[in-house]
Design a protein that fits this description.
- This protein is of the alpha/beta class.
- The protein has four helices and eight strands.
- The protein is globular and about 55 Å long.
- The model has no long low-confidence stretch (mean pLDDT 95).
Length: 210
């Protein structure tokens, strides 16, 4: 990519660039730390005049944690509120070091830091909607309205994890009426085994993979 600046109608969305999703963290993505230099450089370049960062921010007793369900272990799938729910290791607990935005990135260019997963009963993969109810009717976080009111028409998405929070955020951005570019090399998955399914889901949603 060249160093030119994008137009006023393009925003960058950096999803959950937090230590708990990196090697040594509670819910590590494969090589999750490898994308930090690229994202740090992208923010430092000031190519985007609107930047949003999301931050997973769970209460210690969050319903998505396997520790809250006796007899269950991380990565099992249960039914929660009538929908499948993957149970996770405790991660990104509010105020913990693992929940901080990565300190190797200068977050000064971020216009908005959106904390998600704050409701103990509801998981939140997407930056745009909670994990509750039919896809297009899930409760909104307000991000789509905030971007629309700023005149944003196109969203470029990167961060962690490629196969969960970044994918869902990209899909919901498209549903919300934005053109979406998925910055593949600036994402990493929980499991590379999901990469083919992720690409298929992005293509079906009309999302450009860069």
């Amino acid at each position: 990519m060249d160093g030119s600046q994008y137009g006023l109608d393009v925003a960058l969305l950096v999803v959950d660039l937090q230590p708990d999703f990196m090697p040594g963290g509670a819910l590590a993505c494969q090589n999750g730390d490898a994308i930090v230099p690229g994202i740090a450089a992208l923010l430092a370049s000031r190519r985007y005049q609107t930047v949003v960062a999301t931050q997973d921010w769970h209460p210690a007793d969050h319903a998505s944690f396997a520790s809250q369900h006796a007899g269950h272990t991380p990565f099992e799938v249960i039914e929660l509120h009538g929908h499948p729910q993957t149970l996770w290791p405790d991660h990104c607990v509010q105020g913990s070091a693992g929940a901080a935005l990565d300190p190797r990135v200068d977050w000064t260019p971020a216009d908005l830091i959106l904390r998600k997963g704050t409701d103990r009963q509801v998981d939140s993969y997407s930056a745009f909607r909670e994990n509750f109810g039919p896809r297009a009717d899930r409760p909104a976080t307000g991000l789509a309205g905030w971007l629309h009111e700023r005149g944003i028409a196109e969203v470029h998405v990167c961060g962690l994890a490629r196969d969960y929070c970044v994918l869902w955020s990209a899909q919901d951005a498209a549903i919300s009426g934005f053109r979406v570019h998925f910055l593949w090399e600036l994402t990493r998955p929980v499991s590379v085994a999901n990469d083919e399914a992720t690409r298929i889901a992005l293509t079906e949603a009309g999302i450009e993979i860069r």
